Each structure stands twice: as C-alpha cells, then as structure tokens.
Amino acid sequence: MRFQNSVFVDLLKPIDRRAFAGIVARHKGDAYDKSFKSWDHLVVLICAQLAGATSLRALETAFNANGGFHYHLGSRRLARSTLAEANARRPVGVFADLFARLSCELDRRTRRDGAELLRLIDSTPIPLSKFHDFARSNGRIHGMKMHVVYDPGIDRPFCVEVTPANVNDVEIGKKTPIEAGATYVFDKGYYDFKWWRGIHEAGALFVSRPKSNTRLADVAEREMPQTRGEGYTVLRDCEVELASKGDSKLPMPLRRLHIQRDALKDGKPQLIVVITNDMTRSAVEIAALYKARWAIELLFRWIKQHLNIRKFLGENENAVRLQLIAAMIAFVLLRIAAHRHDVDLPCLRFAELAGRFLFTRRPISRLDRPPSKYQAARRLASPRQLVLNYA
Asked: Which residues form the DUF4372 domain (predicted)?
C-alpha cells in the first residue's frame, strides 16, 4: 500500500525548510533555545491553532499523544516549560518573515491575469485580560491591535502587524508599501492628507470616508448614467477640492459621493459620504469598492471564531505576538492547501476537518469522504482447511 502522509505534514509542505533556516539565522532565532528549535516552535504553535488547544498543558498532552507522527514532522516531544520559555524570547521576526514568504506563495497560486488590484486596509482589536500587564488601552479596549492589508479577490492577507491598542491606525498605514495601479480602500481611521497624497503620487488610487469636519468645496457636478447598485443608491457625485484656509492642501482631483444604503439603521436610511481620487470609474463602481471593505471584517470574524486568538499561551507581549502571527500562518497554509489539492469545501468546513484529522494519514483532497477500505482477500492453503471464526 502506498505510504500516506498525515494531514499535518501535507499542510506544512509549502514551507521551504531551507528558506526558513535562512530566516532563523538572520534573526538568530535559535540563539537561546538549543534543544527547542524554531522549527519545533513553529510546528507546535500551528498545531495549537488548528487543533484548538487553549492552554500549555492541553497542547502538551495533545501533541505528545501523537508521538508517532513527530518524525515526519521533523519535531520532537514537547515540554510546556520549554514552550513557555521559547514564547517569551524567540524573535517575532522569524514568524513574521515566514508569513510574508507564504503570503507570496499564496499569491502565486491564486493570482488571476487581468484581475484588478484591490487592497483593503483595516485593524481589529485583540482584547487581553488584566494578567497581561504590558497591554495598553485606547479608551475602548485593553489589549493590542492586529493590522492587515487584504486582497479579497484571492483571499490573501498581504501584511500583518501587531501593535499596542493605543497606536493610531494611520501610523501603520503609512508603512504599507504602495503598488502602482492598485486601489486602496480604508475607513476614517486612516485619515491623513499627506498619506493620501503619497498614494496618489505613487500612481495608486484610494477610496475612503472623510471626517465630518472636513471642508470640501464643490467644483463640478458629474453625470450619473446609473445610480442603483446592489443594496445601495448613489444620490450625488461631484468633483471637489479642499476648502481649508490653512496649509493643508491636496494637489489632486477629488470626488465626493453621497450613497444611501437600503438597510435601515434605527429605522432610518443610512447615508454614507465617500471620497476618492479615482476619476474614471463610475459612481456605482466606486460605491461597490467601498462596500467590498466588508470583506476584511469577515476575515477578522473568521479568524477570531475559528483560530485560537481568544486565549493565549503566555502572559507576556512576545508570546501574544507569536501566537497572532502563527494564527495568520495557519490561515495562509489552509488557503494554499485548498488551492493545491482542489478542495471544493467552504473555508469553515475545510478548517474544521483539517483540525479534526490533523494527525490522520489521509489525503487532504478526501477529508470530507470516508477512508478507503483495504481488505486483503482471504487465501486458503487447501479447500479442506478449517476456518476459525468468533461466534
């Protein structure tokens, strides 16, 4: 019978061990942990994400109970004290650089020729308990924030950065590399004229919402051949310019759209004002782009509900950061595996089955099917030979 790897081994195959060793060497990831290497650490944290382990003791028990699979994983038996120490001092850059590499691999497998470059930028709060002394408060939550740049067309998170909760979203947005020809969609948290000007000068477009105190003067009304979209109606489309008397200037053409959603809020229609430097798309198309921003909210909801980022395997900042990056690595590995094995299952079902059969030898493409039954034909030495059966 042909040898079959476990589901966990197949999920880890996109990771180039030689490239990962180079990342570890660059960050000196194994400088303080000679016996528990960075690879061992990575395997264990991904296992915690997919298997849903919520404590060091539960993770140690589950991982060591499958010791027969450690050899093919390139790992070894786990001690929770060793894992706790590694969580506290292994450089986060080891996992962050691996995530960036895997994200590029996902892009290579899912990229479609001619697809528009759409980038959604947002952050999600990560609440932490009072036992996490390092956590900061921003007035709403006590914890940290995870910032993500996301392509909804291929379900690919580009960049991930974890910061204290009191760090302004736009400060992380300014660090995002701008791609010429791409369209960046974000909310009011990324309100910064200088950054908007940088996006325009880089040959990219943006769609956002202005703050209520932004003074914009109408320049010209634009025609709207179509005003109706899916779930919304565009009421107005006009070219505008900044009417501020100070030094704040936006040396670029701008459009302001007034959009009314069909869904009611507090029994009343909801009006949304959108601003953009895109002068070619129709008003309905630009409204659809801002509506697409909901996809990154769905990504955050999926990660929080189906990966392990509610309970953390350590109370120090480094442990929390490592676990959050490991969660994103697990997400990307699931997406790569789904494309690589042509899995025709919803993301939720596939993640549940992968976690359920993590240490089972079966093809990823057949996770939702019963295993094949191999039953050897019974051969008798003589037709007169007795056959003993249990009653």
From this structure: 4-75
183 and 289 Cβ atoms separated by less than 8 Å: yes
| Nearest partner of 38 among 13, 75, 77, judged by Cα | 75
| Angle between helical axes of 56-64 and 80-89 (0-180°, round to 10) | 120
CB-based burial of residue 3 (10 Å sphere; 0-12 exposed, 13-18 middle, 19+ buried)?
Answer: exposed
Considering all CA atoms of the chain, what is the largest pairwise distance in Å, rounded to the nearest integer?
107
**What H or E segment, with its residue span, contains residue 48?**
helix 38-51
pLDDT tens across 358-390, in order? 999 988 988 888 776 544 444 545 666 666 665
**219-241: b or e for each residue (b if 16 or more CB lie within 10 Å)?**
eeeeeeeebebeebebebbbebb
Q: Which amino acid is at 333?
A: L
Question: Nearest-CA neighbor of 237 among 215, 255, 213?
Answer: 255
Distance set, CA 92 to CA 71, 119, 123, 156 (Å): 26, 25, 19, 21
From the list 339, 382, 375, the residue with the least C-alpha distance to 13 is 339
To the question of pTM greater than 0.90 for the whole model, the response is no
